[in-house]
Amino acid sequence: MITSDQTAVLAGLGTCLPVGEEDNAALSERLDTSDSWIRERTGIAARRIAGPDVSMRDLAVAAGENALKAAGLAEVDAVVVATSTPDRPLPAAGPQVASSLGLGSVPAFDVSAACSGFIYALAVSAGLIGTGLAGDILMVASEKYSRAVDPADRATRVLFGDGAGAAVLRSGRRDERGAVLAVDWGSDGTGRDLIHWPGGQGGYLSMAGKRVYLKAIEHMTSSTLRVLDQCGWAISEVDTFVPHQANMRIIRAVAQQLSLPEDRAVCALERTGNTAGASIPLALAHGQANGTIRAGDRMVLTAFGAGLAWASAALVWPEINTVESEL
Question: Which SS3 state, helix, strand or coil, does residue 43 take?
Fold first, then answer.
């Protein structure tokens, strides 16, 4: 719970997507699947795939640069990078992203919370700002899941895509639009094997689909209710709901559990797929671009992913700029 009058305020948003796109028809040529099968079960028509010459860090740097442009800033006090698909396990991507952006010797580090990474980074950044350790923070969520999934595994290959989203947070007050009003987060390590990627040990991402589906609905629903309780908001007062873009069935099920009209949920995965930690900032940019998200909207963000880890946050959407690009 956030109790201080001083908190983080959203000041700018940036995204970067790979130019490469793989649609369902292309996948159907190599896998036992079809466009109708994928759309019916996931809502995904295509996903962005970064080429071998585009790294997770490249996407992160481009999104971070765009967020700084959107906020009108050339400097920040810290950089937080959320990723579960780092280019290498050591060193962290944060210092490399900060250096590439010309941000000098600011503190920079990584957060690994899989699909909940953006909101985890938001919680950490709000804490740094609330305690006075930083004024302006650049937080970036960047993923390259195309290197983690088995190209022959229909269950995971159809889901995941690559991309990055970033936000600049500044110090402000709770009564400002864009202020982070409340955060709920949690984890359950007993579910560590439900979504698993051995990474450098070899092998591909594995996921216990049905159990993950049920856990995602359970925790995204309960976390949303807890963050609403912190704000004193009723579900009927939520104008815009921005869930992790895992698949359409999960988004619809969570909205149904919350008794929230489906048209209040932002859905942006049709042409990007599941971009894990980057999915929420990409959804925010999508919603702002098409008018689904409007200044003054009461908004809840929620996510669930490997760990198991989940998180939700509440804010009132501000008038901010968004800068997008492709790489």
Answer: coil
